[in-house]
Each structure stands twice: as C-alpha cells, then as structure tokens.
Amino acid sequence: MKPAEAYILKQSEPYRSIMMHLQMLIEVTVPDTELLFKWSLPFFYIDKRPICYINQTKGYVDLVFWNAARFTTYTELLVTDKRKRMKSLRYKTLDEIDDVVVIEMVKQAYKFREHKFY
To answer: Which of 27, 106, 21 is CA-nearest to residue 61?
Structure first.
C-alpha cells in the first residue's frame, strides 16, 4: 500500500470517508493524476506538478488547491485561512460535499497546472 493511501485509510470517521470520496472525484475527473505522499500529506500530481492535496485537521478535511488564486468559478466557496496563494474547500461531513463543485475545482486545477505558482 502506498503511504498516501495508508494516510487516508488510517483517519477516523467521518474523515476517512470524506478523503476517500474526494480521492475518487479527483481521480475520475483527471485520470492522469498521481497520488504521492509529500510533506506527510496525500498530494495529487500531474506531470510532476502538484495540483492539490488533502489534509485532515481541526475537525475537518481540507482539499487544498495549489493554483487556486487563478480560479474563476465557485471562488466564493474557497477558504484562504491566512494563505495568500493556496485556497481550500473544507468539509466536516460527507454530506457537505457537492460533487459538481469539487469536479469543477479539479478541472480548474488541471487547467492551471502549467502556470507557475505565484
């Protein structure tokens, strides 16, 4: 088992289910993604470039997007939390996840993957 998968599976519920669902949405939306374990977190890479990562912390799961400052849709749903460039979607329960929003965010992350991180 890959370290990133082990990280997801060792989480307690409901975080494990949230992370597994997000992983499925990301991998179905962009089949070329590679799940890697970087900085002790599950990162999704395309062509050796990170597009997003998943982190369970403080009672929620953060789906953090690398180039979110460039996103144009659903930006009002993104949380900055004192971050200048990366932004995230936060989930406390599986029911909070809107698949349409996550898929659109992943598509935007894919679209902006070639842009330099600023």
So the answer is: 21
Q: What is the DSSP letter of 100?
A: H
- Pairwise CA distance, residues 108 & 102, whole Å: 10
DSSP state of 13: T
- Please state the rounded mean pLDDT for residues 25-48: 95
CA dihedral sign, ordered 43, 34, 96, 103: positive
Fold of 3-111: Aspartate Aminotransferase, domain 1 (3.90.1150)
The predicted-structure confidence for 45-87, as pLDDT tens digits, reads as follows 998 899 999 999 989 999 999 888 889 999 999 998 887 778 9
Radius of gyration of the chain (CA): 13
74: left (phi over 0), alpha (psi -120 to 50) or beta: left
**Cα–Cα distance, 6 to 23 (Å, whole number):** 13
Domain positions in the chain are 3-111
CA separation for the pair 82, 28 (Å, rounded): 30
